[in-house]
From TrEMBL, chain A:
PROSITE patterns: ABC_TRANSPORTER_1 (PS00211), ABC_TRANSPORTER_2 (PS50893). This is Teichoic acid transport system ATP-binding protein. Belongs to the ABC transporter superfamily. GO terms for cellular component: membrane.
Automatic annotation (TrEMBL), chain B:
It comes from Nesterenkonia sandarakina. InterPro entries: ABC2_TM. This is Teichoic acid transport system permease protein. Residues 68-270 form the ABC-2 type transporter transmembrane domain. One of its GO terms (molecular function) is ABC-type transporter activity.
């Protein structure tokens, strides 16, 4: 049951708050099971939220209550549709929609100068968060705001396979909005970082996956973005390339206003980040000091991998109690609407 | 058996139950991924013009790179089709009866039709088939569709040369009882250029609208191949126009006259093999299609700008 209705109200048992609410005859909104007055949810333990004004000069990125539910075409029966008619249609056409919840109600603010690590087990929603942050996908609800369009450094995005490495470099630079002169100026640097000077005339389809990710990395880091997202880009390539990668990344990071880093390597995260966000099952579980969050995460994953579910849950709950969620409130209609430019500088 | 979602306890503090509210002024911020206004969008496309040009240019040279004959296929393909159509329609079914210079007529029909439909179906696939580039960069997505159309034009230049050469050499071959109308190179041939320019605008408009549709619903691809077929049979590619008039249905003639591809073919045929002007109505119809398609197609595409990065 829990898999078929992923967004079912979580408050379904007779929890204390419910019983109290019944006693006090507080009206509940039937649609989501939340009390109408949400601040009065657990009246005996909580106070009115504290309002903290944030200086706009320091803000780099604001994620306001972002949720993401993928609606993907799927021919499998795993995600059963709810309606009877849609089930029949699905059986006839052999293709239907499956709703996959990926993130729910994420809110946080990133200030200028912060390096934010994002951790979480596989399938927890890290990549989805990155897609929302770069604006490739619009959240199903909530919004993402930033001072400029963030740039993602990933190794997954391949370029055009049929054309040569040299042409891909030019194409990539132009696709980032550089002028032909800027492209020519960056060309040598890109070739140097990629270390592919011998293979530049070959079409990209002849490259090994390591080679094309090196090229992709070199092209992506040729600009100095203000907000930078790095997705697992550090652990590719051989030792020689890794050294070059690290140097270039340090340079780019030093120039960037804010950095997001998604990695499974906790060592890298602890070393590079000033703050860590842990996402688990699409929800934020922790947000804070890298040492503390990483140690919780390590404990959690070690329990999980050893099959100690109860112990893992204890860590989960314990971590979650420490979470101090934030709500975003824009002063007097200053909620941003305007669009950013796709050009990088 | 344990429940799959084990960690979620009912009495934990609810997520989203914020205990603090951050109040901020968002006037310096942008909404990430937001669609720019129409004029801003056009300016953005202009600023990516070098990308657009380079993208179309570099991919022309790489098209057919998987075939041993490579670029020769761009010319070989319509010649093979033309030969096949000539035997089926010209010799077996005799659809060319009453058409002067039927061979030239057929060559212009087949080559131009091919140019039109490959460009439109390529443009329709420009977003869905380029998801990697879309995911990696933030340029205005219309650039991809425009560059596909431009690329189609670039790669068709040798094909048009072959078409002109064939029309000049074998286009006026005597077939059956048709009148002898020798074809020669006159200034009328230049009418080809404004005509193709208008055709490009129609193609771009259709590509823009279809690119959004294909990206949203892959099923549209099936409809495109169906539509291509219909267009093939209704644009007088391989038969004379009297067949429409003789059918005795006035509305059929009206429909045909409003078909932009028929207008393109008719204009080029009159200019090249009949050495004269087509009916001015053709230019009016084609011109309206061109302007209308570009405006409507662009608006449709721009309106869906935020949806193109989504996985399907």
């Amino acid at each position: 049951m829990s898999t078929s209705t992923p967004q079912a109200p979580r408050r379904n048992k007779n929890s204390d708050a419910d019983l109290i609410a019944e006693d006090l005859a507080i009206e509940f909104d039937d649609r989501n099971g939340e009390p109408v007055d949400s601040w009065d949810d657990s009246p005996f333990t909580q106070q009115t939220p504290v309002v903290q004004p944030v200086d706009q000069k320091n803000i780099c990125m604001v994620v306001d209550d972002a949720s993401m539910t993928y609606r993907v075409r799927s021919g499998t029966d795993k995600h059963e549709s709810s309606g009877r008619v849609s089930r029949v249609i699905k059986r006839i056409t052999g293709s239907g929609w499956a709703e996959v919840p990926a993130l729910s109600n994420l809110s946080f603010i990133v200030s200028r100068g912060e390096s934010v690590g994002v951790i979480g087990t596989n399938g927890s929603g890290k990549s989805t968060l990155m897609k929302l942050l770069t604006g490739k996908v619009r959240p199903t609800s909530g919004e993402v705001y930033a001072t400029s369009t963030p740039v993602m450094l990933g190794v997954n995005a391949a370029l055009v396979k049929e054309i040569s490495g040299r042409e891909n470099i030019r194409l990539g630079c132009l696709a980032m909005g550089l002028s032909p002169e800027q492209t020519a100026a960056k060309y040598d640097q890109i070739v140097e970082i990629s270390g592919l000077s011998d293979a530049l005339e070959m079409p990209l389809k002849t490259y090994s996956s390591g080679m094309s990710s090196r090229l992709q990395f070199a092209i992506a880091t040729s600009v100095d973005p203000d907000i930078l997202l790095i997705d697992e880009a550090l652990n590719t390539g051989d030792a020689q390339f890794r050294q070059r990668t690290k140097e270039r990344l340090d340079e780019v990071r030093a120039n960037a206003g804010a950095v997001f880093l998604v990695s499974h390597s906790l060592g890298t995260i602890k070393q590079m980040c000033t703050r860590v966000i842990w996402i688990e099952q699409g929800e934020m579980l922790a947000d804070g000091d890298p040492q503390w969050v990483c140690s919780q995460y390590e404990e959690y994953t070690s329990h999980k991998s050893n099959g100690r579910k109860r112990a893992a849950q204890v860590v989960y709950e314990r971590t979650r109690l420490q979470l101090d969620p934030v709500k975003i409130d824009f002063t007097s209609e200053s909620r941003p609407k305007k669009a950013g430019s796709g050009r990088s500088r | 058996m344990a429940a799959p979602v084990l960690e979620r306890a009912d009495d934990a503090p609810e997520p989203g139950e914020a205990r603090r509210v951050a109040q901020l002024d968002g006037s310096n911020l942008i909404r990430v991924g937001a669609r720019p206004g129409l004029f801003r969008y056009i300016r953005e496309i202009w600023s990516f013009r070098h990308f657009l040009y380079y993208d179309s240019h570099s991919r022309v040279s790489s098209a057919n790179s998987y075939d041993s004959l490579g670029r020769v296929w761009m010319i070989l393909n319509p010649i093979l089709f033309g030969t096949a159509y000539f035997f089926v329609f010209g010799v077996l079914l005799q659809t060319g009866r009453g058409v002067d210079n039927f061979l030239g007529y057929l060559i212009i029909g087949v080559f131009t039709f091919r140019f039109f439909t490959t460009a439109v179906s390529g443009g329709a696939n420009a977003i869905a088939g380029n998801q990697r580039v879309v995911q990696a960069f933030n340029f205005p997505r219309a650039c991809l569709v425009i560059s596909t159309t431009v690329r189609e034009l670039f790669s068709s230049i040798p094909m048009f040369f072959v078409m002109a050469l064939l029309v000049l050499t074998v286009g006026d071959t005597q077939l059956g009882d048709a009148a002898d109308m020798p074809i020669s190179l006159t200034w009328h041939w230049l009418l080809f250029f404004p005509c193709i320019a208008l055709a490009l605008m129609v193609m771009l408009g259709w590509s823009l609208a279809l690119a959004r549709a294909v990206n949203a619903h892959n099923d549209v691809k099936h409809l495109i191949s169906f539509g291509t077929r219909i267009l093939f049979y209704t644009s007088a590619v391989f038969f004379g126009t009297e067949r429409w008039t003789n059918a005795g249905q006035d509305w059929l003639v009206t429909v045909m006259n409003l078909n932009p591809l028929f207008c393109v073919l008719d204009i080029i045929r009159h200019a090249w093999i009949y050495d004269g002007f087509a009916d001015p109505a053709r230019w009016i119809v084609l011109g309206s299609w061109a302007v209308g398609s570009v405006v409507v197609g662009f608006l449709i595409f721009w309106h869906g700008e935020e949806s193109y990065g989504k996985e399907r």
